[in-house]
Amino acid sequence: MTLTIVVLIFGVVLIFGFASISQSYATARQAQAAIEASRVAQIASVGNLVALITVVLIVAIVLAVALFFGWLFLRGKSQPERQWVPGPNANWGQVSQPQANALLPALLTVLLYQMMQNQQQHSQRSEQFWMLDEPTDDTPAISEIPWEWE
């Protein structure tokens, strides 16, 4: 009888031991799942922060461009339209230094355009010159063909 009680007590202790081990294992797995969930939440919060900063930058850039063009528009509207009428002492042959400096890019553009036109005309003339050469084979030129039939 004592052997049976010892075996029963040993069985009950063994059952409680397995229950305690499985409960500890389940608690450890839950803690690991909570750690993984916090890592995922941390990654998601960084992604949300990047998305929010991107949207704020885009809105700020669009707002800055809109304000800049609005400022240009209002500035153009506020300035009166100027009409220059030469006075009796106007010197038509002389341009002031700031005006000459302002016209310099336009002058350079016109000169560059003229140079390109001259170069194009020169290359067309040289092509026409080479096209007028006599043929090197025995084929008669168009001017040598008798067009009138006798």
Radius of gyration: 48 Å
Backbone structural class: mainly alpha
| Count of the separate structural domains | 1
Which percent bin holds the helix content? over 70%
Note the beta-strand portion. Answer: under 5%
For the largest beta-sheet, the strand count, sense and barrel status come to: none
Shape: elongated
How widely separated are the two ends?
151 Å
Tally of helical segments: 2
Concise structural overview:
The protein has 150 residues and is an all-alpha fold. It is built from 2 helices and no strands.
What secondary-structure arrangement, pairings included, does this model have?
Layout: H1 2-78, H2 97-131
Walkthrough of the structure:
The chain is an all-alpha fold and 150 residues long. The chain has one domain. It is built from 2 helices and no strands. It is elongated and about 140 Å long. The termini are far apart. The model has no long low-confidence stretch (mean pLDDT 81).
